[in-house]
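If you are new to this repository, start here. Below is one unmodified record pulled from the training split, so you can see the exact layout before writing a loader.
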Amino acid sequence: MSLRLRTPATIVTVVALALPACGSGDAGATDAVENVGRVSSALYSLPPAPVPFTPQPCQDAGQCDAVDTAIRAMSAKYKLPRWFYYAVVNRESTFDPNSWTNYNGLIGLGLTQLTESTHTGVPYPMNLLSPNPVTDPADPSYLDYQQWLYDKGVDYFCNSSQIPAAQRVCNWIDMRNVTPLSTQNDWSDPVKNLDRYSSAYAAPAYNLFRTRYPGESATTTLRRVAYYWRYGIFEEGFPNYDPSDYLPGEYGYDQYASDYRSAVEAQDGVWNGLVAIPQSTFTWMFYGDYQGKDMWHSTDSNGGVVAGGGYSLRTGYLQTTHRFGNGPNSVKVTAYGGTAGGVAPIMRVVVGDQTLGSVQVTGTSSSETGYFFYYSPSTPTTQPIRVVFDNGGAVGTQIRSLTVMSVMAWRQ
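And here is the target side for that same chain:
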């Protein structure tokens, strides 16, 4: 995170030749990309071959190739859109992996300007040798681990009376999901810098903010992720408090996001707003992400596929199958509805033969909402997840509907 002045960015261009996989002389980035799925290989895979897009010209073509390859790898791994990475990296470092700044003693390093041992610690944050929870006050690592939890607001976002109960999130981040760094100089490696930024902040923060600020669009939440990276997760002034003009202006995040978004979406498609939910390396096998359009629908659903990958029901249900881990599991259904006669749709979620809950869906197509349910089998089990629309109907010309954008499930 940095306040140093930026040089003007060149407008996005689409070029005829595809970028090479990595710049010459950057073996570290190549090795890191080849091993991008090492921690959670059950979920992640390498990105497809680069398509003909470059964010801006660069004097060192090999360096820019390595940065672009790293961004593609991280976008595939964490499901954050490429245009978001381009915008943040341009705002923070103008695509220079060796960039570093000193602002009032706060050192920012690399593409995303990683700061302090909270983000630059080797091998783990706070320079801890292990990412496992430290609960024994006699342990030499206890104070450092507790400081990291405090800096991340883990207890605050779970238990604060200042946060409405429905918007509290417990354990929004787990150090066991933070990508380790091997040396103090890893910050200058494009892949390792972006991987640490994504795992120690961006991906879990996005999911935290989606719950903390329900009803806002996914792109607004991404804008919030960029803002809080600059000002800290406890700053409540978004977006008006911005003394360094991080968001607005010719060289701000907003302009860069606008520049890159259309070019990226022309190649990658429109981002669906779903970001990988971090889980420990022992529970990735129990993670599932299912778009509404891909779920089986009952023959009486009378609905259809909607933009963004969802499926709209007039009645009936959608169903998918998921492998649950033993113990607590979360099921998140992202949905919105259409009212009839002033009555909103009611959605019921069933796993196997157990009803997890029933809710009134009040969100609209412009403010879809994530609804959380919980399931706790004693042993790992494969079960159907059914999303049931219980009160379909019409009042005059108004048709009550339930649109399911996605179902996500994971072991806590």
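Two things worth knowing about this chain: Residues 1-52, 279-285 have pLDDT under 50 and may be disordered. The chain has two domains: 27-268, 284-411.
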